[in-house]
Protein 1
Amino acid sequence: MATAAERDPLELQIRERPVPAHVGIIMDGNGRWAEERGLPRLEGHREGSNSVREVTRTARRVGVQALTLYAFSAQNWSRPADEVAGLMDLLREYLESERQEILENGIRLEAVGELDRLPRFVRAPLEAVREVSAGNRGMVLTLALSYGGQEEIAAAAESLVQRARAGTLPPGPIDVDTFARELWTCGLPPVDLVIRTSGETRVSNFMLWQSAYAEFIFVDTLWPEFRARQFLAAVLEYQHRERRFGLTSAQLPK
Ligand code: FPP
């Protein structure tokens, strides 16, 4: 029997068209959400983890194959030390509390970024959930942690140079596919939809390569208030966009 969520009119509408295979989210506005309420910024991040839980559940339910969440950028290390420490604590709490839900829902947890910069108390539970969920095939949930798109592209170039020096790179041109295999996101489909919350209309170093042909949706909602309905509305808007990948409208399959 269909659950109440599956009978939701918005969700029923979404099920009629293909859903984006890979959704990336720039979760912005936690600080402003807290400040508007006279709360410490960390309370905004804490409420933001509830949005993470709800959006992940919803994405899984409607059949998104890959969800990538920008949880901490390579540049976020420069924030005040207490905010960085609080975010690291939250990540550890999230990894410990969500482990069961991730496993029960067939989700595979992944992470991209300069992971060796994370404190051990985050890396250890991250590696544990990654390992235990490695065989799951439901949806790949990727946390972008200490992540930067420029850093990722530079690391891929560096890796190709190393391989060329070591003689393990077959001779020939470096084409788009060869390059993409060196990225931290190797194996994930290209990003179809990028959502950014909080009214900012910037990319902020997120998935620069992978979002080459993504549709972008910017919403005014602050991340702690971005829940199932807002996510479903963004997917519906995506489904009504015409994606041309450099072709003309007339060339697209009808
Ligand atoms: C940007 O909002 C948000 C972040 C830098 C952190 C995102 C973290 C979470 C949503 C919670 C922890 C993550 C997981 C995966 C459990 P901001 O602080 O820049 O907001 P502002 O622009 O209003 O100040």
Protein 2
Amino acid sequence: MDTLYLVIPCYNEEAALPETSRQLRLKMSSLIESGVISSRSRIVFVNDGSDDRTWEIIEQLHREDSFFQGVKLSRNKGHQNALLAGLMTVKSKCDMIISLDADLQDDIDAIDEMVEKYYNGCDIVYGVRNARDTDTAFKRKTAEFYYKAMNILGADIVYNHADYRLMSKRALDGLESFDEVNLFLRGVVPMIGYKSDKVYYARKERLAGESKYPLKKMLAFAWEGITSLSIKPIRMIMTLGSIIFLVSIIMLIYSVIRYATGSTITGWTSTVVSIWAIGGLQLLAIGIIGEYIGKVYLETKQRPKFIVESYLDDNE
Ligand code: UDP
Ligand code: MG
């Protein structure tokens, strides 16, 4: 029997934690009783620098039942980094980890199937939403557009898969060897390789509290995903630049012919338009290149992705 750890990033989740911990505890107990996972399995909450009572609740859970563990980050570092911190902190203690959100929007009954696929030899099992009925139409549409855009722009991500996934120990070791600072888990995990599979589930309503991903964060996340994974935008700009250059040569020939035939008064409109068009394009191109230079700058700094302040485990 293999050991399963659940890793749950939490940012201001005081409203959801009591119910989440109760449900997950029941799930894990039943898996242990039916002999699917070992009794050394644990549930780990990662406190991502919450401003509310999240950490106190985690500490209390741990005090009352050492089945619950807590990892406290030194400050808020965002969902992806919090998740990574949790994975890396506990990976040496277990054979597989399932990561999920604290609001239990992801159906925890999919855990059974994930573990089953793990025993069938999968190193990575992706949880995929087959319905988004509970999300607003706006969120659904933007998410759909996002996955499509990501694929066109060269990021190989699993459609409708968030961060609900099982990873085996060796897949986690593989993940650890990705040294990049702008780490976008959903894009990097498929790069690890190994045998993988998908488990489908219906996404539910948030248990309690509010979404920690307002539109602004969602857009930032989408942009981060694209620029940290692929250099296709640069190539697209280069292609566009070449086309524009060709057009300008044609325009040049055209205006010379116009000059030769003696009709030179016209052309004010086209001049102004092209100044704006070229100016705009150049700015856009510089902006995108700047984005990548910014990334290079950050990578060379080798900043730590997270700093663990404390880890509550069994042996203290
Ligand atoms: N989260 C986090 N740090 C942040 C923002 C979110 O650890 O800065 C956690 C949050 O507690 C939750 C998960 O990431 O467990 C997903 O967030 P949320 O459910 O708010 O996102 P949504 O489901 O609305 O996209
Ligand atoms: Mg959620």
